[in-house]
Amino acid sequence: MREKRKLSGSKLFVKKFGGTSVGSIERIEVVAEQIANSAHSGESQVLVLSAMAGETNRLFALAQQIDPRASARELDMLVSTGEQVSIALMAMALNRRGIKAKSLTGDQVQIHTNNQYGRASIESVDTSYLESLLADGIIPIVAGFQGVCPNGDITTLGRGGSDTTAVALAAALNADECQIFTDVPGVFTTDPNIDSNARRLDVIDFDVMLEMAKLGAKVLHPDSVEYAQRFNVPLRVLSSFEAGQGTLIQFSPECSHGEFESALVQGIAINKALARLTIEGMFTSCEGYQALLACLSKLQIDVEFIGPVKLNGVSENDCVSFMLAEAKVDILLQELKVLSESLAFGTLLVERQRAKLSLVGKGLQTKLGFLTKMLDVLGNETIHAKLLSTSESKLSTVIDEKDLLKAVRALHHAFELNKL
Fold first, then answer.
1. pLDDT of 3 above 80
2. Residue 320: which residues within 8 A CB-CB, separation 6 or more?
């Protein structure tokens, strides 16, 4: 149980603004005005900013031109500079408005991580400096996405890491709420760009939000949801472009008729631009399977549905099949070609332009009729479900990407998510 803050009588909010929210000087000025108004109303605030929209990609592209295999340490040194631009500009905008503010890197805040460059994990946060600034009426503006490892090097937390920075600071400071400002007004039952009938959820449970984030919903990074859940940090998704209450993510109330219990299926998560890779004849031995896992780890490739399968039911055709991001296929094939020099294996089958869609909610595995209904709905739309994965909180399938819009709209209507 987190203790309430005793720093002052005012409420403390940690507010994170994503790249689109600070993507131009005009946007920075708009956010600065919003922060200044909140400061005048008596709020205590800590800001966490991402790099300006497109900046991190630009920096990675520069590195690619110099050395496509640049060390992870130097990449972290490079891409961490993007956030320093946005936090300094925001501090200038607030100071010009008469609001005391100070920009701070992850090192200055003492956000301590492990030494896994490019995908570091936060291990601790020293809040003494932040608390002294707040006590002096100064708004700390912290660079998201970064920290410092035990040997003093800059580390980055991976894509979406600014969300995790904000939640970690909120947990360490016992903030009243962590607010994630982005380009959408909350968490929806599915992507409103795919189905205009998608509904914004006022409240959602940590477990459901975490599953949606893992399954492709881009609104929050999964690490940030896990961190908020672990430390019981109330987490709210808001739009920096329009007013509104957004979506509050918290533990579900201990009641049988609460808002979280109104529907077992609460959303549809989608993940596009996937490929399925099947490798024949390599995995009759443990050595081959372990070699593949080591290869995937080396390339930092996250895969789904990995597991041995049999082709045509014949044991000598034992193979492994898994889903991965389509953008990672070619580099993996290059590595497997090198691997094949020492480990013989058969045909590589690549199926591109796949998508995964998942029904997300509570107690789904126990409701056998839900899976049947999902498959019936897809079948009625002549959509073939290629793989299935089920758990208490999700029912997932893989389909052709060309069928994604039709599938999402049909399932959204069939499970009455437009009525939530």
1. no
2. 278, 279, 282, 283, 289, 292, 306, 307, 308, 309
Determine the pLDDT at residue 259.
45
Q: What is the pLDDT of residues 232-241, one digit of tens each?
A: 999 999 998 9
Across the range 168-176, mean pLDDT stands at 97
| pLDDT for 159 | 80
Give the amino acid at 171: A
Mean pLDDT of the region 82-92: 98
Fold of 12-264: Carbamate kinase (3.40.1160)
pTM: 0.84
The answer, yes or no, to whether residue 340 has pLDDT greater than 60, is yes
Which one is predicted more confidently, 307 or 141?
A: 141
